[in-house]
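Support request, please re-run this one:
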Amino acid sequence: MAQITPEQIVGALRGCVDPEIGINIIDLGLLHWIKIDSSNNVEIRMTMTSPMCPVTSVILADAQLRIEKIQGIGNVNIELVWEPAWSPEMISEEARLNMQV
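Re-run finished. Output below.
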């Protein structure tokens, strides 16, 4: 069994877009931490732009499904955390440039 890499996880999550903002969760800076064990079980810590985000469950479910589609993946556990708190400075430079009108 091939070892899953953090790059594969990040690649899968680039397709997970916040429907309110229209930017993927990687470029938004919502992903804090990835841990992959030798059995390809994945633990992720991520946040939302706000504790009041109305699409939290949609984003978490989409992220879970995208990771589970990776060939050879084990169990996937996504933990929603609020520290460190999200701020607009976490948005990638590329996404920031695309947001400018």
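The domain at 6-99 is CATH 3.30.300.130 (GMP Synthetase; Chain A, domain 3). The chain has a mean pLDDT of 94.
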